[in-house]
Amino acid sequence: MKIDAVRNEYNFPGISRRNIAKNPFEQFEKWMEDVLDSEEKEPTAITLSTLGSDGFPRSRIVLLKFFDENGFVFFTNYNSEKGKAIEENQAVGLHFYWSSFERQIHISGFAEKTSREISEKYFHSRPVESQISAWASEQSEVIPSREYLEKRFAKFSKQFDGERPPLPPDWGGYRVVPQKIEFWQGRVNRLHDRILYEKTENGWDIKRLAP
Ligand SMILES: Cc1cc2nc3c(=O)[nH]c(=O)nc-3n(C[C@H](O)[C@H](O)[C@H](O)COP(=O)(O)O)c2cc1C
């Protein structure tokens, strides 16, 4: 297996402080539009990193469901490992990687729970089976078997038969309010472009980083 021989050249046009949007949310929107129009399989996949109380960072994929100038929103179980980590330390990392565009975005920010209203609205927009799964899964807990999980699914399917499952009390959204957003564009000869926005009292400072 010749892993060290894998070598891609990056020939996309660059980004600079001159051609990038003044506001990072506008820039994010442009790049998100590009991936949504492409064949990228999971365009909204985010690698979410938290710092656990055991001192180990942990990363996992979640899906971006909304974003605006207030932040980036994903949904999960508040009692999951990530939920417990955020309870202790709101500082999180969000990472997007789109291989077909040779682009990555890194966001450092603080996670806060969304309103119940926002969580309700999103929860009920999901297929009913996914709503039942949210009830059935005690996310990140050790469970005895697959059968145990399927029995819980059957139990909640019966309980909510013919009605809309309510929003589980420990399920909802987090909004990540960004402090820093870095846009990375792969370029020729490994001289990649990295443009960093840092939040200040008056808006956003824009800097270029060495690749
Ligand atoms: C493509 C993909 C999308 C996912 N989306 C979510 C999501 O939006 N919310 C979520 O809680 N877990 C999602 N997961 C599962 C998580 O990666 C993770 O396994 C789960 O949330 C438990 O993580 P934790 O134990 O670190 O809290 C997704 C996994 C994949 C591969």
UniProtKB/TrEMBL annotation:
Its EC number is 1.4.3.5. FMN binds at residues 60-65, 75-76, 82, 104, 139-140, 184, 194. Pathway: Cofactor metabolism; pyridoxal 5'-phosphate salvage; pyridoxal 5'-phosphate from pyridoxamine 5'-phosphate: step 1/1; Cofactor metabolism; pyridoxal 5'-phosphate salvage; pyridoxal 5'-phosphate from pyridoxine 5'-phosphate: step 1/1. Binds 1 FMN per subunit. The keyword Flavoprotein applies. Residues 38-157 form the Pyridoxamine 5'-phosphate oxidase N-terminal domain. It catalyses: pyridoxine 5'-phosphate + O2 = pyridoxal 5'-phosphate + H2O2; pyridoxamine 5'-phosphate + O2 + H2O = pyridoxal 5'-phosphate + H2O2 + NH4(+). Its cofactor is FMN. One of its GO terms (biological process) is pyridoxine biosynthetic process. GO terms for molecular function: FMN binding; pyridoxamine phosphate oxidase activity. Keywords: Flavoprotein, FMN, Oxidoreductase, Pyridoxine biosynthesis. Substrate binds at residues 7-10, 65, 122, 126, 130, 190-192. Residues 171-211 form the Pyridoxine 5'-phosphate oxidase dimerisation C-terminal domain. It is an enzyme of class 1 (oxidoreductase). Gene3D superfamilies: Electron Transport, Fmn-binding Protein, Chain A. HAMAP family: PdxH. PANTHER family: PYRIDOXINE-5'-PHOSPHATE OXIDASE, PYRIDOXINE-5-PHOSPHATE OXIDASE. Homodimer. Catalyzes the oxidation of either pyridoxine 5'-phosphate (PNP) or pyridoxamine 5'-phosphate (PMP) into pyridoxal 5'-phosphate (PLP). Belongs to the pyridoxamine 5'-phosphate oxidase family. This is Pyridoxine/pyridoxamine 5'-phosphate oxidase.
